[in-house]
Write a structure and sequence with these properties.
Blueprint lengths: L3 E7 L6 E3 L2 E2 L4 E7 L2 E6 L4 E8 L7 E10 L22 E7 L2 E6 L4 E2 L8 H9 L1 E2 L7 E9 L2 E4 L2 E4 L2 E4 L1 E3 L1 E2 L2 E2 H6 L19 E8 L2 E11 L2 E7 L1 E4 L4 E4 L10 E6 L4 E8 L2 E7 L8 E6 L10 E2 L5 E6 L7 E8 L8 E7 L6 E2 L3 E8 L2
Parallel strand pairs: 1-7, 16-23, 24-28
Antiparallel strand pairs: 1-33, 2-3, 4-5, 5-6, 6-7, 8-9, 9-12, 10-11, 12-13, 12-16, 14-15, 17-18, 19-20, 20-21, 21-24, 22-23, 25-26, 26-27, 27-29, 30-31, 31-33, 32-33
Length: about 375
């Protein structure tokens, strides 16, 4: 692991609690730095969280606060809009966040989930609970929302104009049962069989997003196929009238996607970042496991000439990321600069944050790891 320091993320206590004993700081899944702001999300919400740079604390840790929350429903026509009862909220399971060309891009996991059995109810009931598989309709989300300058920082807008060009919020065409991406993958020889398997069972599960020019890269936590992880590459065209995105042919014989297989030693992809022409890959265990977490570099991964099969010796192992047992699961990765200069570090946020990362009523620390 390279040189490290901490960043303290201070959430508004009034917006911190999610109910059922859960809190924003306990399930951070994504992060992206845009100027003096840090955008993050909890994977059990329908909101994005913006934090703004504050002076360092007396221990030299970076600080982010002035928390503001942005409900996705204010900008996008969600597959399942939130109702009056918070218990009925269908989470977006936001697992990827990226900034490109005036837009903040986001992606939901597109995954199914299996009921977690309650052992106190007895073995028979636990077995029945393990049969139950469900989908949250808002997980089928690939979208972009314009970024605008406002209140001394950047915020989201439903529609705006920049440099004579109209920017508007839009999501990939679909509904609460799936979208154009899952439809296109139904008969795929590698991925089609996994669409009906929950993400934590090595089923289909998007957990990384990177945008480079007109290409969108989606990293899959699962499936991992005989030790090989998968990155999907797609391109979209936008319909300003309907505020939707449509997939465009990009692969062989007019296919709407391209598949890239990477030999990551059995690890799945937890996040992606663009660094010049390269793709940085946060890789960790698939399914519901503790285990090693590493960052790899795929040289020229932002512009593959064709569908790629990338062996281990064609990837650069950059650094190891801390991980715990039952806690501190590295989920989000962002190129980072503490002072607005070149982004020569990575900021890592964690799901199930350990107690020693938490402070006060609603603060949590992320790691800043210097890139070699």
């Amino acid at each position: 692991m390279g040189t490290s320091r901490l960043a303290t993320l201070e959430f508004d206590p009034a917006r911190h609690a999610l109910g059922k004993g859960k809190a924003l700081r306990d399930g951070l899944s994504v992060a992206v730095q845009i100027g003096d702001t840090l955008w993050v999300a909890n994977d059990e919400t329908l909101t994005l969280e913006r934090l703004t740079r504050l002076p360092d604390d007396d221990q030299g840790a970076c600080r982010y606060g002035r928390h503001r929350q942005f409900p996705l429903n204010d900008y996008l026509a969600l597959p399942v809009p939130p109702g009056d009862d918070p218990a009925d909220l269908q989470e977006a399971d936001i697992e990827g966040l990226a900034c490109a060309d005036g837009y903040l891009w986001l992606v939901g996991s597109h995954s199914l989930k299996r009921k977690n059995p309650k052992l106190k109810d007895g073995a028979d009931k636990a077995r029945r609970q393990l049969v139950k598989v469900r989908s949250d309709g808002n997980r089928y989300l690939l979208a972009r929302v314009p970024l605008v300058e406002g209140d001394g920082t950047c915020e989201l807008a439903k529609r705006t104009r920049q440099n004579g060009q109209e920017l508007f919020a839009a999501r990939l065409k679909g509904d609460d049962k799936g979208d154009e991406l899952t439809e296109a993958l139904q008969n795929d020889m590698h991925l089609g069989p996994f669409l009906g398997i929950p993400g934590k069972d090595n089923g289909f599960d998007i957990e990384g997003l990177a945008v480079a020019g007109e290409r969108i890269f989606l990293g899959l936590r699962g499936p991992v196929l005989h030790g090989w992880a998968v990155i999907l590459e797609v391109a979209v065209v936008a319909d300003a009238t309907a505020c939707i995105l449509r997939l465009q042919p990009i692969g062989p014989q007019g296919c709407l996607y391209r598949k890239h297989f990477l030999q990551l030693g059995g690890l799945g992809i937890r996040d992606l970042c663009v660094q010049r022409a390269d793709l940085l890959i946060l890789a960790g265990p698939t399914m519901d496991l503790d285990g090693p977490v590493s960052v790899f570099r795929w040289p020229d991964g932002c512009a593959p000439a064709d569908e790629a099969v990338v062996p281990a010796d064609a990837l650069q192992h950059i650094l190891e990321v801390p991980h715990g047992e039952g806690v501190d699961h590295a989920e989000g990765m962002a190129l980072f600069s503490p002072d607005g200069g070149p982004q020569n570090s990575l900021l890592i946020v964690y799901d199930t944050a350990a107690d020693d990362r938490k402070s006060g009523k609603s603060a949590v620390t992320a790691d800043i790891l210097e890139l070699p």
